Amino acid sequence: NAGVTQTPKFQVLKTGQSMTLQCAQDMNHEYMSWYRQDPGMGLRLIHYSVGAGITDQGEVPNGYNVSRSTTEDFPLRLLSAAPSQTSVYFCASSYSKGARAQHFGDGTRLSIL
Amino acid sequence: AQTVTQSQPEMSVQEAETVTLSCTYDTSESDYYLFWYKQPPSRQMILVIRQEAYKQQNATENRFSVNFQKAAKSFSLKISDSQLGDAAMYFCAYRSAPGGSQGNLIFGKGTKLSVKP
């Protein structure tokens, strides 16, 4: 049982490059979300999805796109990377929005030069 | 909108001693969940303890316990018999119960706990 799998674990990009962070879960969870973690800021919600074909914005959505074509996968796309997007990114899933338990991936450390 | 505040950016405790991490939150809802997550240097987000707002009894998990004061909107974490492995970043988080306005997790900014041998 893999839980929530994020790839890659580390990535370095140049300003202006595009990239997709992958997130997959094998628990048949309807709810998936992306957070970014910056020093002194805690975790902030970027985008979330309550099911296949349904996505919505979180607190800090600018510069990021998401889609949810299957229940299992929820990729996060950076269309034109900026140094301000240097951060650690976490994907999480749960049975539903407002569920008692949420499962986190191990995170992706992304550096934009 | 709901907010979560952790007023202690850093804390330190002697090994085997007890430490309490503070968390306050703001909400107009009556049914919600509160969480403490531990993030060691490995970066993993590990659920330490969870409290359902409708339960008056404070949650406990081995050496970890909470002091949940619903009226005061306070949710502190007590770590007893502190161990070197407890050194980590600790995050307090809020989530509405199903049907509530905020089904996403809302995090505080975290408290970095150091444990001295």
Largest β sheet strand count, sense and barrel closure of chain A:
7 strands, mixed
Mean pLDDT of chain A: 94
Count the DSSP helices of chain A.
0
Residues in helix, % of chain B? under 10%
The number of distinct helices of chain B, counting runs of at least 4 residues, comes to 0
Which percent band covers the strand fraction of chain B? over 45%
Overall structural class of chain B, as computed from helix and strand content, comes to: mainly beta
Label the overall shape of chain B: globular
- Whole-number mean pLDDT of chain B: 94
Rg of chain B computed from alpha carbons, rounded to a whole number of angstroms: 14 Å
Distance between the termini of chain A: 36 Å
The most extensive interface, with participating residues per chain, is: A-B, 25 and 23 residues
Largest sheet of chain B: 6 strands, mixed
Give the beta-strand count of chain B.
12
Radius of gyration of CA atoms of chain A, rounded to a whole number: 13 Å
Which residues of chain A form runs of ≥5 with pLDDT under 50?
none
The ordered string of helix (H) and strand (E) elements of chain B is EEEEEEEEEEEE
Q: Any idea what the shape of chain A is?
A: globular
Strand residue percentage of chain A? over 45%
Number of strands of chain A: 11
